[in-house]
Specification:
By secondary structure, the protein is α+β, with helices and mostly antiparallel strands. It is built from two helices and three strands. It starts with 12 loop residues before the first strand and ends with a strand.
């Protein structure tokens, strides 16, 4: 992927949950406590961050 901020070709690093991950976390807490860990292991729910400049990559 190419970082929009520094224009470097980078492999993004995951850093926390994105909005989808937070929604899934809240829903699993409300409806199914045993699955609350799920958003933390799903790649689609993690933020992608440029290791060079720290900006979020979409």
């Amino acid at each position: 992927m190419v970082c929009r901020c520094c224009n470097n070709e980078v492999t993004p690093v995951s850093n926390g949950l994105n909005n989808t991950g937070i929604i899934i976390l809240v829903l699993t807490v409300l409806f199914c406590i045993p699955l609350v860990w799920l958003p933390f292991v799903m790649d689609s729910c993690k933020k992608k961050v440029c290791p060079s400049c720290g900006q979020e990559i979409l």
